[in-house]
Amino acid sequence: MPIIGTVLRIFSDMPIKEVSHMQNRVYWARFCNITCKEEFGIWKGILLASSKVRLLSHEDGSVVDRRKMYAIRKANQVLCQPMASFPSNVTVLSDVEYEEEWHSTLMQSLTHKEVTHKLKTLARVVGAYPCQASGLRLLSTGNIHLRLTLEDPTARIHAYVHKNYLVQFFGGFLTEEAITKKMNKLLGIPEPEDSEEGAPLTRNPPWIWCCLTSFYMDKNNPWDSRKYRIFATEMRD
């Protein structure tokens, strides 16, 4: 099951009058007897034939409590982050130079009204390309881009580190050994000496702050050709 604080998108194959009613205004609602499943690392909720949706008033006790919790979290830059971003293993690996923008979730960026914008976000790296030894050797030459798959509790995107920015991103060192070590750290791959002999290796990517800028490849089709690039972010030991 998703942990508390996960942003859960709920899907239904059947019409539900309360849901269609909510499209016209913003409502508080209680969802009963729904199921959840994980797809590609992202949780989604599914309404069943037996599911119930109950609209709540602003005076409902549970609504009042959650509005108070929201006000407290909204006033604090750290607590404003999705709760699912704060497991016990939170590690800040990056130095972020870009401090002008308020932080955003990935979903807030994907639904931003402007196709090009900048943001600072807290996410983890769940995939990378290249990631094999031969690809990492090419990275050390500075001749190819690095593609990272970023994930937070709301969405998952690809973000690129431009080949001209690799030296800064990896903290000024572009040797094969340094890149391999830092990529393993980004992906949450334990060092051999930290693993028990015979035990399967499990990844646990740390949460990192990073800055993203969106751009498009085709001016005639900006939304469908939008991509993300990492900037003003440097890994540190």
UniProtKB/TrEMBL annotation:
Molecular function as annotated in GO: single-stranded telomeric DNA binding
GO biological process, one term: telomere maintenance
Source superkingdom: Eukaryota
Pfam families, per database record: OB_POT1A (PF25507)
Boundaries of every POT1A/B-like OB fold domain copy: 93-221
Protein name as it appears in the record: Protection of telomeres protein 1b
Protein source organism: Zea mays
